[in-house]
Amino acid sequence: MRGDDPILKQTGIFIRHFFYKQDFETIARRYDISVNNAQSLYSHAEMRIERVIEALDRIEVAKNNGAALVKLPKSIRIFLLHTAIGLSNNEICRLFGMKHNLVNQYITTVRDKLAVGEVDLIQFTDEQKKAAVDRVEATRARQKVRHKEYYQKAKRTPLPARQ
After folding, report:
1. For residue 1, what are the contacts with CB-CB under 8 A and spacing of at least 6?
2. What is the pLDDT of residues 146-162, one digit of tens each?
């Protein structure tokens, strides 16, 4: 079996050991390789299968959350599928029927726009924003009081307040 495609050899070794319960010595003789090489190829085949299963799981998560994602612009959907759900660029290319460089462009553009504040992933009403500001300010006030009390009890000089 010399000269076989390494991936096919790996697959054959996996099938023979996993399904047919052949020992590695027999497999090594069949493929004219060492026992250690047969074990290594089997291990790599297991890792390939795990990666395939993980990819299928990520695609399933994407499908299950598809209704919410459909409402977003395509560039943000692609960014979320890549960043939040973990789909690879190749998986996104197949999902959307797009070229790899366009997927990369969408991901980079949305990431950059998020970084500079030009894109909001979640839209808030003015009332929600006001309530959030009130909660943050109340939390900061409580932290400031606790900070001051701690240093008074310890008779230490408090650190300068953050602005």
Report:
1. 9, 12, 30, 31, 32
2. 888 877 777 666 566 66
